[in-house]
Specification:
The structure holds two protein chains of two kinds. By secondary structure, chain A is mainly α. Helix content of chain A is about 80%, strand content about 0%. In chain A, helix 5 runs antiparallel to helix 6 and helix 10 runs parallel beside helix 16 (about 535-550). In chain B, strand 37 (about 375-380) and strand 38 (about 385-390) form a beta hairpin. The chains are: A mainly alpha, B mainly beta.
Chain lengths: ~575, ~450
C-alpha cells in the first residue's frame, strides 16, 4: 500500500474514468470502493488534507458542481459534512447517470454490433447470390448468342430455300410458258392443216406439182449420172469411212507431232534446268548431298537419252520424263527461292546496288532461256510445217514411208553429188575421146594425103631425076648412105640446129631452103614426136597439121611420115613415128 | 473507205455469187444481176410473184428465186438468159427452198413440213424425204458438199438421216437422244455432226459421220438451255451459247469444256484481266476507250413470255478461229469479242442502240457491225472505226454481209442497199485510238 502514495493526479483521474458494465456496478463499486478506499486512503493522509481538499474542490468545479468543501477547522482533518455529502450525493448522481448512459450505450452498442453482424451476414449472402446470378446471366447470354447464331443460319437457309423455290418457280414458269407457246404453235399449225385439208377436200382441183424446164442441165462435175446399185452404195460406205479415217489420221499425226515437239521442249527444259542446277550445286551448302544428286542426274541423263533413242511413245518413258521434269523444276524452284532469300537478306544488310546485279543477271538468264526456248519452238514449228508440206505432197504411202527415212535422204544427197561428179568426168572423158578420135581421123586423112603426096612427089622426082642426083638418090636408097645422110639432117634436126648443111636442101628446091626458116620449132617437132607431153596434144597437133597443110607440101613431107629416098629427115620421122602411127 | 450509190432492194434479198463476181438483188418481183466491180446491170429477170427467198447455186451459174406464197420456184441461168425453169409445188405449198451443194438439185420443204422434195435439174426426177422436222435448223450440208444431215421426227422420237449428196443415197439413219431436237450442224471438216436439243433441256450431242455417238454435253438441268451453237472454222472448238448468259467452249479432242465465257453486267479489273472496254457513243468525237470497271445496260426480259430475250443468241468465229464474237440478248447494245488463244475477253463493243447485225471479214480478223442507224462500225485488234454512210435521205443500216474477198461490205437498209469498199491501208490509218490488249 505504500506504493500508492506516489500516485499522480493523472493516474487518479484515469482510474476514475474506467468504464464498467452496469450489472457489475455494484460489485465493482464495492471492489472499486475497496480498491479506491485503499487508493483514497493513499490519496489523502493526515498530512495533505488541505491539498487534497483543494484538489477535490478543483475537480468538483471542473465537473460543474458548485459545492465547495471546506474544512471544519483549519488544522483538523475534519470536514464540513453537508457540502461533502452534497458533493458525494451529486457525484453519486452523476455516477448513476453515467452508469445509465453507459448501460444504454452498451445496449446500443450490442444492438448495433448484432445488427452489424446481421448486415454483414446478409451482405456476404447477397454477394454470393450476386455472383451466382452474374454467372447465370453470362450463361444465359451465351445461350442467347448461340441461339441468335442458329437463328441467323436458319434464316439464311430459309432465304436460300426461298431463293431456290423462287428459281424453281421461275424455271417452271418459263418452261410452262415455253410449253404453252409450243402447244399453241402446234395447235395453230394443226388448225392450218385442218383448214388446208378441208380446203383440198372442197377444192378437188388438185394442182399437180410439176417442173417445167427448158432443157436438162448437165451435171456440175460433167460426169454422167449413174444407176444406184449395191456397188455404188458400198462405195459410198467405203468413201465415208475413208474420209473419216483420213480425218482421224490427220488429227493423230498433228497430235503426234505436237507431242513430239512438247516432249522435245520438255527434254530441253530438263537439260537446261539440270545445267542450271549443276554448276550452282558445289557452291551451295550441303555440297555432298548435291553432288550425289548431280551424279544421279547424270545417270538419269544417260539413261533417258538411251531410252529416248529406243522408244519415245513408251508410257513408262513418258512418266519418267514428266517425273524428272517435276523433280528438276522443284529443285530449280527451291534454288531460286533460296537465291531470292539470300538476295533479299543481303539487300536488307547492305543498301548498295551491287546486289541487284546477280538478280538481274538471273533475270537475263531466264529471259535468254525463254528466248532460246521460243526460238527452238519456232524452229520446230517451221520444221513441222515443212514436214507437213512434204507429207501433203506425197501421194503414195510407200514413197511417203521411204521419204520418212532420213538416212536414205542423206545417202541420196551424197549419191546425187557423186553422180554429178561422175557425170562431169564422163563428159570430160567423152570430150577427150571425141577429140582423140577426131585427131586420129584427121591423122589418118593426113596420112593418106601424105601418101598421095609422097607418091606424087616420087613420081615427080622420078621423072625429074638427073643422072647425078640419081646416083645420089640411089646411093641414098641403101641403108648406109641413108645413115651418112642421116647425120646431116640429124644435125639439122638436133637441138643445136645446125644450118650449115643448107646446101643439101638446095638440091631439092629453093622454096624448101626458104622454108627451112619457116620450119617448125623444135618444141613442135618434139611434141609431134611425142617427146614432150602435151595435154592438148591432139588439139595442138591438129593445129600443127593445119599449119603444115597451109605451109605447103614440103612441110608435110617434113612432118608426116615418109619412107622417102630423099633427105633422110623424113626417114628420121619415119623411124621415129613408125611404131606409133602405123 | 468508199461508198457506192444506193440501189433498190426488197426483202433484204441481196447476195454475192460464191465466186465473188456478181451481185444479185431482188426488187419486188424482179431479179437484178450486177457485176461486182462495175455495178453495171448484167441481167434482169422477171419472176411471177414477189420473191421471198433468193439463192445462188454453188457454181455461180444459176439463181433460185422462191415465191413461198405461190409455191413456186424459178431458176435463172447466167450463161443462158433464155433458159428458164419453173417448179410448182402445187397444192402442197412451200415453206423453204434451197440448192444442193452440187448446184443441180433443189430441195423444197413443203408446208407443214410434210416432206422434203428433191428436184433434179439434170434429170427432172423427183425424190422425197419423209418426216422432216420443223425446227430451228433441220437441214445442213457438210462444207465440202458431200453429205447432208436431215432431222426427222417419227413416233415422237427424233432421228437424223445422213444422205450422200451425189446420188441422195441414205447413208445412215439413227435415233438421237434428244427430247426435242432443235438443230444440227456439221463441223467444217465434215466429220462430226453437232446436234442440240430445244431450250427446255440443255443437251448437245456429237455424232461421227458414220452415226456413232461420240459425246454428250449437258451443262445444267431444268433451266432454259442452248440458244445457239457455232463451230470454229478450224473445227477445233464448238461454242455453245445458252440462256444462262454464258458461252461454253468444247474442244474437239476430248469434247469436254475447256472454257466458259460469262457476260456480267459490270466488268471490273479482276474479271476482265485488264482488258479495255470500247464505248462507241453517237457523237461527233471519236470513239472512247474506257477502262474498267464498266457497267453495261441490262434490259430484263419479260418472265412470262416464251423465248425470253436473255442469253447468248449469236456467236461468230473469225475466219482464223482466233476471235469469237458473242451477243447477250439482255445486253443487246454490247458485242463481246473473246480471244481464243488466251481464252479471255478481248474487247467489249458497246453501242448506243441494240446491235442488229455483226459479221466477221472472211479473210482478216475484222468485225463489222451495225445498229440500225446510219453508221457502220468496224473493229479489229489494232483499232476501230465508225463510219457514217454518206447517203441523202438517211440510210439506216439494218444488216450487212461481207464479200468473200473481204474487200467490201454490202449494207442493207429497209429497201435500199449500199456497197462499202475497204481501203487497203485502212488497217494502218484508223481514225480513233487503238484498243490496248494486255
Amino acid at each position: 500500500m505504500t506504493h500508492f502514495k506516489l500516485f499522480e493526479n493523472n493516474e487518479i483521474s484515469r482510474m476514475s474514468h474506467v468504464m464498467m458494465s452496469p450489472s457489475r456496478q455494484s460489485n465493482l463499486e464495492l471492489a472499486y470502493s475497496l480498491s479506491t478506499y485503499s487508493v483514497i486512503g493513499a490519496f489523502c493522509t493526515e498530512d495533505n488534507v488541505p491539498q487534497c481538499l483543494l484538489h477535490i474542490n478543483q475537480e468538483l468545479a471542473s465537473l460543474g458542481l458548485p459545492v465547495c468543501i471546506e474544512a471544519s477547522s483549519p488544522e483538523g482533518a475534519n470536514l464540513n459534512a453537508v457540502p461533502v455529502l452534497n458533493a458525494v450525493y451529486e457525484l453519486l448522481q452523476i455516477h448513476r447517470r453515467d452508469m445509465c448512459t453507459l448501460e444504454e450505450m452498451e445496449k446500443e452498442q450490442m444492438k448495433k454490433s448484432s445488427s452489424l453482424d446481421l448486415i454483414q451476414m446478409t451482405n456476404s449472402r447477397l454477394k454470393d447470390q450476386l455472383e451466382l446470378s452474374i454467372r447465370e446471366k453470362s450463361g444465359l447470354y451465351e445461350t442467347e448468342r448461340q441461339l441468335q447464331l442458329k437463328l441467323k443460319t436458319l434464316q439464311r437457309c430459309l432465304k436460300g430455300e426461298k431463293d431456290e423455290v423462287q428459281k424453281l418457280q421461275s424455271i417452271i414458269a418459263s418452261r410452262a410458258s415455253q410449253y404453252s407457246h409450243d402447244a399453241k404453235r402446234k395447235e395453230r399449225e394443226a388448225a392450218k392443216l385442218k383448214e388446208r385439208l378441208s380446203q383440198l377436200l372442197i377444192d378437188r382441183k388438185d394442182k399437180k406439182l410439176a417442173i417445167d424446164v427448158l432443157n436438162n442441165l448437165g451435171r456440175s462435175d460433167g460426169k454422167r449420172s449413174q444407176w444406184r446399185t449395191t456397188k455404188a452404195t458400198a462405195s459410198h460406205e467405203g468413201e465415208m469411212y475413208k474420209f473419216l479415217l483420213c480425218d482421224y489420221e490427220e488429227s493423230q499425226k498433228s497430235l503426234v507431232l505436237e507431242n513430239a515437239e512438247l516432249k522435245k521442249v520438255l527434254q530441253q527444259m530438263k537439260k537446261e534446268m539440270m545445267h542450271i542446277l549443276s554448276p550452282c550445286q558445289p557452291s551451295s551448302r550441303g555440297a555432298t548431298a548435291d553432288e550425289e544428286l548431280a551424279e544421279s542426274d547424270e545417270d538419269e541423263k544417260t539413261r533417258d537419252s538411251s531410252r529416248d533413242t529406243l522408244d519415245q511413245s513408251c508410257e513408262h518413258a513418258r512418266e519418267q520424263l514428266t517425273n524428272s521434269i517435276r523433280l528438276q523444276w522443284r529443285k530449280l524452284r527451291n534454288h531460286v527461292e533460296k537465291l531470292d532469300n539470300q538476295a533479299s537478306q543481303v539487300l536488307h544488310q547492305m543498301e548498295s546496288n551491287k546486289d541487284m546485279i546477280p538478280f538481274e543477271t538471273h533475270q537475263d538468264e531466264m529471259e535468254r532461256m525463254r528466248h532460246e526456248v521460243q526460238q527452238c519452238k519456232e524452229f520446230i514449228h517451221a520444221q513441222q510445217q515443212l514436214l507437213q508440206q512434204q507429207l501433203s505432197t506425197s501421194f503414195d504411202d510407200e514413197t511417203a514411208a521411204l521419204l520418212y527415212d532420213c538416212y536414205t535422204l542423206e545417202e541420196k544427197e551424197r549419191l546425187k553429188e557423186e553422180w554429178r561428179l561422175f557425170e562431169e568426168q564422163k563428159r570430160n572423158f567423152e570430150k577427150e575421146r571425141r577429140n582423140f578420135t577426131e585427131a586420129a581421123i584427121r591423122l589418118g586423112r593426113e596420112k593418106q594425103a601424105f601418101e598421095e603426096d609422097r607418091a606424087a612427089w616420087f613420081k615427080n622426082h622420078f621423072l625429074n631425076m638427073t643422072p647425078f642426083t640419081n646416083r645420089r638418090r640411089c646411093s641414098s636408097s641403101d641403108g648406109q648412105s641413108s645413115l651418112s645422110i642421116i647425120s646431116e639432117p640429124e644435125i639439122r634436126m638436133s637441138v643445136k640446129a645446125h644450118k650449115a648443111k643448107a646446101s643439101t636442101y638446095t638440091t631439092f628446091s629453093t622454096p624448101k631452103s626458104s622454108r627451112s626458116t619457116a620450119a617448125p620449132s623444135t618444141t613442135d617437132l618434139y611434141r609431134t614426136l611425142r617427146l614432150i607431153p602435151d595435154c592438148s596434144s591432139s588439139m595442138h597437133s591438129n593445129q600443127v597439121w593445119q599449119e603444115s597443110s597451109t605451109n605447103g607440101d614440103e612441110d608435110i613431107r617434113i612432118k608426116s611420115k615418109s619412107r622417102g629416098l630423099h633427105c633422110s629427115d623424113l626417114d628420121i620421122f619415119a623411124l621415129g613415128e613408125d611404131d606409133s602411127l602405123t | 473507205m468508199n461508198f457506192s450509190e444506193l440501189f433498190k432492194q426488197s426483202n433484204q434479198l441481196c447476195k454475192v455469187s460464191p465466186d465473188g463476181k456478181y451481185l444479185a438483188t431482188c426488187v419486188q418481183y424482179r431479179l437484178v444481176v450486177r457485176d461486182v466491180s462495175t455495178l453495171q446491170i448484167l441481167h434482169l429477170y422477171t419472176c411471177l410473184d414477189q420473191v421471198s427467198h433468193m439463192e445462188w447455186s454453188s457454181d455461180s451459174l444459176f439463181i433460185l428465186c422462191a415465191m413461198y406464197k405461190r409455191g413456186l420456184i424459178q431458176v435463172w441461168s447466167l450463161e443462158q438468159p433464155d433458159w428458164h425453169c419453173k417448179i410448182d409445188e402445187g397444192s402442197i405449198g412451200l415453206v423453204s427452198s434451197r440448192w444442193s451443194p452440187d448446184g443441180r438439185h433443189i430441195l423444197n420443204t413443203t408446208e407443214f413440213h410434210l416432206r422434203v422434195t428433191v428436184w433434179s435439174l439434170c434429170t427432172k426426177a423427183v425424190s422425197y424425204m419423209k418426216y422432216p422436222k420443223a425446227c430451228q435448223k433441220g437441214i445442213d450440208f457438210s462444207k465440202d458438199g458431200g453429205y447432208m444431215a436431215l432431222a426427222e421426227r417419227r413416233d415422237c422420237k427424233d432421228y437424223v438421216s445422213i444422205f450422200v449428196c451425189e446420188d441422195w443415197h441414205l447413208l445412215r439413219n439413227f435415233e438421237t437422244e434428244t427430247q426435242d431436237l432443235s438443230g444440227l450442224e456439221w463441223s467444217p471438216n465434215g466429220c462430226v455432226l453437232a446436234v442440240w436439243d430445244s431450250c427446255l433441256e440443255y443437251k448437245v450431242l456429237l455424232y461421227s459421220l458414220d452415226g456413232r455417238l461420240l459425246s454428250t454435253y449437258s451443262a445444267y438441268e431444268w433451266s432454259l438451255g442452248v440458244k445457239c451453237v457455232s463451230w470454229s472454222p478450224s473445227s477445233q472448238f464448238l461454242a455453245i451459247g445458252s440462256y444462262d448468259e454464258k458461252v461454253r467452249i468444247l474442244n474437239h479432242i476430248t469434247w469436254g469444256k475447256i472454257a466458259q465465257f460469262e457476260h456480267p453486267a459490270s466488268i471490273d479489273n479482276t474479271k476482265a484481266e485488264g482488258n479495255f472496254v470500247l464505248s462507241v457513243p453517237e457523237l461527233p468525237h471519236p470513239d472512247e476507250i474506257c477502262a474498267p470497271p464498266i457497267q453495261i445496260p441490262v434490259v430484263k426480259p419479260d418472265p412470262d413470255r416464251a423465248n425470253p430475250k436473255i442469253g447468248v443468241s449469236v456467236l461468230a468465229f473469225s475466219s482464223d478461229s482466233r476471235y469469237l464474237a458473242s451477243r447477250n440478248d439482255n445486253m443487246a447494245t454490247a458485242v463481246w469479242v473473246w480471244d481464243m488463244q488466251k481464252m479471255s475477253l478481248e474487247a467489249v463493243l458497246e453501242q448506243t442502240a441494240a446491235v442488229r447485225c455483226f459479221q466477221w471479214d472472211p479473210r482478216h480478223p475484222r468485225l463489222a457491225l451495225c445498229t440500225g442507224n446510219s453508221k457502220l462500225y468496224l473493229w479489229s485488234p489494232r483499232g476501230c472505226v465508225s463510219v457514217q454512210v454518206p447517203a441523202e435521205g438517211g440510210f439506216q443500216v439494218q444488216s450487212l454481209s461481207w464479200h468473200c474477198s473481204g474487200d467490201f461490205l454490202i449494207l442493207l437498209g429497209k429497201d435500199q442497199l449500199c456497197l462499202c469498199y475497204m481501203d487497203a491501208e485502212q488497217e494502218e490509218n484508223t481514225s480513233c485510238r487503238h484498243c490496248e490488249n494486255v
